[in-house]
Amino acid sequence: MALRRDDWLDVARKVDWTYRYIDEREAFPESVSGTPWLPQQAWKDWNEVYRTTYREYVRNQRAKDDAVMGARSALSKVGILEQLDPGWMQLVKFHQGAVALIEYAAVMAEQRMARFGRDSAWRTMAALGALDEIRHTQIPLLMGHDMLPFDGNFDWTHKAYHTNEWVIIAARHLFDDMFLAANAVDLAVQLNFVFETGFTNLQFMAMAAMADGASHHLFEKALASIQTDEARHAQIGHPVLRTLIENGATEHAQYLVDKMWWRCWRLFLALTGSSMDYLVPLSARRRSFKEFMNEWVIEQFTKNLAEFSLARPWFWDLLMEELEYAHHSFQLGLYSYRTTLWFDVAMPDEQERRWLSEKYESWNQIYAPIWDTLERRWQHDGEAGTLGYALPALCNLCQLPTVFVRPGKNTACTRKVGERRYLFCSEPCRWIFDKEVPRFASHKSVVDRIVAGVAPVKLTDLHEWMGLEAPIETGKDLRRGLDKWRLEPVPKV
Amino acid sequence: MIVYLFGYMSDDFVGRVLVAPTEQTVGRLAEQLVSWGWNPERRDRYRVMNEAGTVLDPALTIAQAGLSNGDIFTVERG
């Protein structure tokens, strides 16, 4: 008679044994397994709710892949891509470039936990997580490839992380910190607990709802399918965090949560905030970015923190203030420097402005006048009058332009370490830097590289350095396109 | 000596990198920032401050005002 699942599952999942030939510390070095280093005894109760077996995993994943591939097959026959909203296409291009290969980097993160996680059930879950992340890489790469006939810039789905494009440098800086250069304990808290439990609902579930509204059903299906995997392997974070707290490492746990919360906020306002409120067609906007953040992230995360008796991050008030403004400021930055992006950027039209004013109390007062100025410049000077020419000052931690919180209130600040002065967009970014100076100090922002002569100062050369072939690949105004002069060859002496 | 500074205009949305010789005046530096910004046509009086919030005399040179590589300055109109 076959054993029932629960009769054998723990024999397969809980296979930690006593080492005779090497010390436990040698098998799980603190530098890779994590701090504080605790003996296996401290981790023995590690558990999570899914307790998935490999057989179940394969069966479930096959069904999920069948569903996504079925949608791809069905929808490829009706010319659905040609009918998608142009703004939505840019959103997908932005998403694919920023997300696809990060999923592949996450394979390595999960594999690190699969080897150096301190309990075998954790390692089992992480091994399945690594397989998840391979899938999460392959699906967007496939979709991006399918979209190439409609827009050649979809090759940025694969290309983006092989370039020096500034948005990508910012994302790479975050993900290196979050998981590629993190030990198993830190990355479980940072990746699984904060990023995946706290934020990915926003990018995958909220965006899936909007994809439905935009009639991009393959994208909707793929996002929702990916998020079901994320929801499972995100569970790694909870028992790791619990073990840390039970063993007196609450301060370290709180730091990891606070740090990564802020860093994720910066990424999501840039990627998701600007996309949701400026690229999604009005008819598909279910809620504003702020509303999604409040409902899907803030509320849920507050409950998670309470579960572990952790405090809200110390910068909570600033975060709440930024919810109203920060991504609108960032959108202006994207628009002004759009020629350094691989996707097009929208100037809100009249209807969109009304919507933004309804959703954000002060949008009309603070942001509408700047868009008015840009509109006038289009009228009088054409495209050239609407581009930013001076280099934007970039934060040495998040690597984003220092546009926060809003016009009239900039929170930029500096810190001198040795002979070098570092610039930060905000106190939380400076605080993170101060906490781990040796980790961050040697990194150079794009501006630092230009000043040091490592990157070119001339815009046309900078495009090339960023991997952008101008003007074919460089971003433009979503609705107006390029002025004709941009298509003419650059005169040579 | 040439230095690079980060300038913030009170009615603008982004900080900008400015490169200037240290013997240039603070007043000229402010005009330089305004010229790069979104309202170059508006020629008001300016108040220039360093990161600590100290108001800088526009007649001082950048060096005399204590600004050096990587420093922040803010320009307020009026």
Report on the structure:
The complex is a heterodimer of chains A (493) and B (78). Chain A has 493 residues and is mostly helical. In chain A, a hairpin with a 2-residue loop joins β1 and β2. In chain A, α7 runs antiparallel to α11. The N and C termini of chain A lie far apart (85 Å). The mean pLDDT of chain A is 94. Chain B is built from one helix and five strands; from the N terminus they run ββαβββ. The termini of chain B are far apart. At the A-B interface, α15, α18, β3 and β4 of A face β1 and β2 of B.
Blueprint of the fold:
The complex is a heterodimer of chains A (493) and B (78).
Chain A: H1 5-13, H2 24-27, H3 30-33, H4 40-43, H5 54-75, H6 86-116, H7 120-147, H8 156-159, H9 166-180, H10 184-213, H11 217-233, H12 237-246, H13 250-278, H14 289-307, H15 316-336, H16 350-359, H17 363-366, H18 368-381, E1 405-406, E2 409-410, E3 413-417, E4 420-424, H19 427-435, H20 437-440, H21 446-451, H22 459-465
Antiparallel strand pairs in A: 1-2, 3-4
Chain B: E1 2-9, E2 16-21, H1 26-36, E3 46-50, E4 55-56, E5 72-77
Parallel strand pairs in B: 1-5
Antiparallel strand pairs in B: 1-2, 3-4, 3-5
From the structure above, extract its key features.
heterodimer; A: 493 residues; mainly alpha; two-stranded antiparallel sheet; 22 helices; 4 strands; B: 78 residues; alpha+beta; five-stranded mixed beta sheet; 5 strands; 14% helix
Brief account:
With 493 residues, chain A is mainly α. Helix content of chain A is 61%, strand content 3%. The model of chain A has no long low-confidence stretch (mean pLDDT 94).
